[in-house]
Each structure stands twice: as C-alpha cells, then as structure tokens.
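Worked example 2:
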Amino acid sequence: MSIIAENETSQPASGCTTSSVDLGHEVAVPAVSVAPLWIGNLLVDPPIFQAPMAGYTNFAFRQIVREYGGAGLQATEMVNARGFVWLDEHDCEHPDRLWGVKDEARPLAVQIWDNDPEIMAKVGIRLAQEYGVSVVDINFGCPVKQVTEKAHSGSYLLRDPERMYAIISRLVEVCYPTPVTAKIRLGCTRKTMNHVEIAKVVERAGASALTVHGRTAEDFFKGSADWNKIAEIKEHLEKIPLIGNGDLQTPEQVVHAFQHYKVDGVMIARAALGRPWLFAQAAAALAGKPIPPEPTLDQQRACMLRHYDMVVDRFGTQKGTMLMRKFACCYAQSKHGARHFRTNVVRVETPEQFYEVVEKYFPRELDPNKTNPHLPDSGSSTAEPQDCIDEGCCE
C-alpha cells in the first residue's frame, strides 16, 4: 500500500506542493509516540534520515538541509569502494564525493558499494578511522545498470544473501565501534521479493540498522512504494531498527508511516531535493508541533541561489553552473511556470546566464491582476512529479 495513495487528497495546509502559499497559518498534527532510535551507539533524533542520492546529496545540498534542520542523520552520495581503493593505490585524491566529509558536522553517514568484502573492508576502515564518520552504510538497493549489471553490486546482490552476509560481517568487524548499516529494496523483481529473508541476513551479519525502499530493483522508481511489505519485516527483526523509505513527500505522510507501518525511522529522498526544508516540517509534525509553512517563492529562490553559490564555490563557475541545472529544476518543480523555467535553465553555461534565467523565469507568487510575460498561461506549465530526477539518482 502506498503512503501517497492513502493520502493523495490530504495535502499540507501550508501549501507544500503548490506555489500558492498561506504564510499566516501553521498546521499541527497529533504527536506520535516514537521510541528513541539508536544505531549502535549513535542516537538519531529525530528518527528522520536524509537519503544518500547519487549526483545530488553533495556537500552543498547537505549544508542547505543542515541549515533548515530536522534531519536526524544525513548521508553522502554513494561512494564506489573499488574506485576509492584504486585512487588510494595510485596516490590520487580521494573520491570527490567525500570532499568536506572530514570537517563536516556530525552525525554523518557515508554509503559505499561493491561486491568484494575485502575491498569494502579497506574503505570501511578508512571511513571509520581516518574520516571519523558516524555510520558506514552499505548500498544493496541501487537499481542502476552500471552498478547492477556491469558491477554486480547494489540491488544485484539481493539474489546472493551469502555474499551480502560476507560483506556486512567483514565491515562490522573492521569498522567497530563505528556502526554499519544496510539499505535494500524488496527484491530484484516482483516475482522474487525476498525482503524478509534479506532482513534476517542483515541482522545476523551484525548490522546496526536496516533501511528498506518499498520497491523492487525492477520497479526502479515506477509505481508506488509498498509500505505494507516494509512493515512485514519488523516482526522478523530481533533488535535492530527498521527504517522505511519511498514516496514520502509531506510531513503528514511521515507521521502516517510511523502510525501504520511499524517503522522505527523514515528516510526522505527525492521530495527533499527541491524542498530541503521538508525535514524540518516533518520533524515538527512528528513532535506534534505546528508544521512550518512552505517558504515564500522569494525565499525559495534565495535558497536556490545560496545553493548555487556553494556549488560554484566548490566546483568552479563552469562545472558548478552545469551541476546546478538539475537542482534548479527541482526547486521549481510543481510550480506555475516550472516547465518553462526548466526549458531555459537546462541550457545555461555561465553564472550570468543562470542569474538571468532565474530572474526572468523562476516562478513567482501569482498576482491575479498581473501576468508574467515570460511565462505561459497556467495549466501547461506544471512539471510532472519527480521529472527533475535523472536515472542516475539512487535512493
């Protein structure tokens, strides 16, 4: 059963998915009784996780999320363990996805992937000892062909529980006392779902927590996440926490997940890429406090421009501008004029072009007495849900 399907007529009163925002009201939902979530010796409070997403959850995005607050544990983009080892052996700089990690605020998880226990162990021990990360997470859920078919890693390993056990137990051994966690999907295909069996393997191997995305690898991101399948796992875990992931787009859906699906924590992914304040809204809802309203479109534009400045500061103007295209699309998603903005912003190559497109085309508060000559009429300009996300985004 999809959380979205059950709540499709219940949108946040603060206007979370529209460009029409009422800043005069905050909405509270009943508080949920949530037990403290411990991952090994790490307390995650609130039990709301920021998902690792390849190509998106870089240092700049994590900093934006941290400024808004609400995420109990953040995560980097997934790191190719084999590539890390190669760079290390050739005296090269460590993976770009680990930039800033050593000095970044904690708690922080780093997710790694490969199918060789010893390669994973080499990277895990470096992350635990040299980088001092809070959690080492293992990716067993990525459905992208480059990871599954070419590297026999990610969700491909769901068909090989023995190899998963070997990888997890080896990492637990070398990373101690840093906790090791795992992220999985329900199975490789709808016909071969083995989420309960895999969950038992993960716990038996010594992992400190399990995150489950409610789709199979075959599904990719199509259809709806099956939270009933996620809930099935709980009774088969003896002590480690279960974290649910998939289709969480509103604070109310986060509360609903805790109330109805037996999870100990939730992980928010794609919905936060253009709404990094979603974690703070969800944390408030979980505590029974008034849900902060959506920022105004002017505030959202300012957030996007700050995000752009941090990306450019890290990657330089040319590469930073190119990388920011996809984030800019996410910030405009589902707003009046979003499609027109996206059409223009994906072509920018310089800061001057970026700022010009933002000034001309980024959605603004609608004034019934005025029209924006740069935007088409309402009705043909709203982006489809999640259409800013490319297929390289692993959740």
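The first strand starts at residue 27 and ends at 28. The CA atoms of residues 125 and 175 lie 5 Å apart.
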